[in-house]
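Class, carefully examine what follows:
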Amino acid sequence: MYYYRYNNQIFISNKKLNFQNASEKEAMFSNKIYAAYFIPPSQSKKAFLISSEDLLFQSNESIEMIRQRDKSILNIPNWLVEKIKDKKVIGVNLNYTEWEDVLKYELPVKWNINIAGLGDVGGILLSGLKLLGADIINNIGIFDIDYNKVGRWLYEGNQILSPSSSDFLPEIKSVKFDEIFNCDMFVFCVTAGVPKIGDNAEDVRMAQFNKNSEIIKLYAKKARDVKFKGIFAVVSDPVDLLCKTAFKWSNTDENGEFDFKGLAPDQIRGYGLGVMNSRAAYFAKEIGLGKQYLKEGRVFGPHGEGLIVANSIKNYDDDISKKLTEKTIRANLYVRETGYKPYIAPALSSGALSIISTLKGEWHYSSIFIDGAYIGLRNRLSSAVTEIEKIDIPDILFNKIKKTFEVLKNYE
C-alpha cells in the first residue's frame, strides 16, 4: 500500500500515483483518508464510503457489495480498520476526469431545494417538505410550465404555518427554468402520459417511460450545461430507468459521444422504493407480521415489476416474501380500482419523507448506481458520499436481487 498527499488530503492506493509521497504516520493521524480506485466510469460511482474492508481497492463494482462479508480479503493495518469503522475512508475513482470535485463537495447545513413539476405528486411532495423540513431545508423553489400551478402553490404553500410556531417554515419561491439548478437538490416530478383510470395498463409506471424519458433528457442536458454539483433526485416513474436516462444524456456531448463530464452517477438518486417499503409493511401488518417487518423487513429493486420484498433479513421466509411482493407490486392497481390515481403515499413515503431522511444522513430507500444500473435499496449519505447498507443476505434472497439487478443493468 502506498501513501500520498494531494491538495492537503491524504490518499492511499495499491498502485503508484503521480502524487506527493506521504508517510504511514501522516495517514494514521489524518481525520479523513481517500482511497484511490480505478474502474471505468460507466461501471462505477465517482465516490462512495468505504464502509467495510472488502470494499477497499476493489477492481470492479458489483451487486455483491450489498452482502456482508465475515473477513477482509486484504491484509491491512489495524489503524486503517478502525478508520473504516469510524466512516473516515472514502473511495474515489480516479478514472473520472473531474474526480477532484469529491474533495471540494460538502453537504449544506440547510438545503435549498428546487422542484420541477407541480402535478399530483409534485404538489403533495412539496407540502410534505414544507411541513416536515423546517430544521433541514432553507427554501423550496418551484417550477412548472403551467404558471397558474406555480401561482397557486406560492399563495397556498406560503400560507401554511403552525399556530404555535415562533418561526416560518421553509419559504416557497418561484424559479425560472434557467434557475432550476441554482440549488443543492433538484427534484424531478415532471410527468406525462399517466394512464387514466380504467386504462388496461398492467404496469402503469412503464407506460409513462417513453414520454418521461424525453422530458428528463432536457433537464439532464441543462444540468450538464451549468455543471450542477448537487443531487439530481428523480421521483417520476419509472425512477430506476429515468435515473439511467438522466446519467446517459447528461454525459453525452454534442457529437453523441460519452465523455463523463456531466452528472456523476452518484449525484443521481431515484425515489420510488420508499412507498414499496410502506406498502409491504401495510400488508405485513394484515397478516400479523407488522412489527417484525418494521424491524427486519427489506425491499430491493425497482419501483414496480422486479421488486423483491423480504419479510425478514434475520428469519427469511420465501413463501411469505413472495406473497408480500405480489401484493406490494399490485398495490397501485388496488387504489386505481377505487377510481383514484395512487399518488399520495408515493409523494410522501418515496418523496418527501425519503428526501428528508437523505438530507439528514439517515437510512432510507432510494435507487443508487451500482455497476451500470440504478437499483433501489437502503443507503444513506455519510461523509457527503453514499454508504450502502451491507447485510447478511441468504442465498435464495440474494439470487433474486441479482436477477433483478441484471435486468436493470442490461436495460438500454
Remarks:
- The first helix runs from residue 24 to 28.
